[in-house]
Amino acid sequence: MYRMILNETSYFGTGCRKNIAVEAARRGYKKAFFVTDKDLIRFHVADKVTEVFEQNNIPYEVYSDVKANPTIANVQNGVAAFKASGADFIVALGGGSAIDTAKGIGIVANNPEFADVKSLEGVADTHNKAVPTFALPTTAGTGAEVTINYVIIDEEAQKKMVCVDPNDIPAVAIVDPELMLSMPKGLTAATGMDALTHAIESFITPGAWVMSDMFEVKAMELIAQNLKAAVDNGNDLAAREAMSQAQYIAGMGFSNVGLGIVHSMAHPLGAHYDTPHGVANALLLPYVMEYNAESPAAPKYIKIAEAMGVDTTGMTEAEGVKAAIEAVRKLSLSIGIPQKLNEIGVREEDLHQLAIDAYNDVCTGGNPRPTSIEDIEALYHKAF
Predict the structure, then answer these.
(1) Taking a C-beta distance cutoff of 8 angstroms, is the pair 272, 354 a contact?
(2) 164-191 CB burial, b ≥16 within 10 A, e <16
(3) What's the pTM value of the predicted model, to 2 decimals?
(4) Bridge partners of residue 172, in order along the sequence
(5) What are the backbone angles phi and psi of residue 29, rounded to the nearest 5°?
(6) 69-122 pLDDT per residue, tens
(7) Nearest to residue 188, comparing CAs of 278, 251, 126?
(8) DSSP characters over 279-337
(9) Could you report the per-residue pLDDT of 219-240, keeping only the tens digit for each?
């Protein structure tokens, strides 16, 4: 048996953010609680959304207490602000951080028994859908606007809590590439590799099936063809649009079939060092692909290589594995992704604790090769 959960409504294309007003009117919503981050306000990206509110006489309140790796406090403060605002729907603008914060706020507001936020870790048994949320991504990477997952930092325990809950999926996804034009090169590269990691991990997870495979192969193709162009020229709207679609398509798949230990290993880096999630994934991906080549997923690597633009005619399985890993590494290098953990401030003495945290991460169960703390620690050392 397989299950697919997707948004009720999604819009794609340049300028589609105007449909916030269309959907709010159609659903009878009166006031927006606008969740975004301070940088998007400072660089006037948020203005592109507030002007839609203003042109359509939609009252709104802004909540910008959002960190790059959002915390329990960000969510709890947001719940209090949402309740005080009198809003009846949430509009989230940002990368995964703003959308994840909005998901946490929306879930707790309608399920107050989970007010401590910690109880949402893993698969939470919430009974009510989140406050209706419209999600507008400003990065082409996380797919947070179409997933049933969100990630919140427990600062006390120095840990990223992965929360999985069908009740948190945004009601409306609005994927407007114009909102992504201000992304700097480094962020474009890191978030694009995050989307590629989603596509590859969910393509080889044991839960993958015909529909998720269809999504992930298409996502890989779009990323291989457009990511470097989007990094090299941030104003290339065609490349931005292709990447905005690729990350959404990858999200459609991974949200429903799961991920693996690239994500398990990336999450502790975010919790301990505040490493940007896309950078952590991008750096670790080739090392974990090598490790997972010794698993029942190995025959699928030739499809990965093909999707990445490699001519795989006449290749053996072993050659396909090598070609897939090389293609990923080549793309990563071409857009300036760091290749070693010591380049991004990771300390060797921390690797054992990182491995314990990674092994206990909710994504570990989706890895195609059974693993252990020792194996994960060895992978960290290899990437160090």
Answers:
(1) yes
(2) bbebbbbbbbbbbbbbbbebeeebbbbb
(3) 0.94
(4) 9, 134
(5) -80, 145
(6) 899 999 999 999 999 999 999 999 999 899 999 999 999 999 999 999 989 998
(7) 278
(8) HHHHHHHHHHHHHHTSSTTGGGHHHHHHHTT---TT--HHHHHHHHHHHHHHHHHHTT-
(9) 999 999 999 999 999 999 999 9
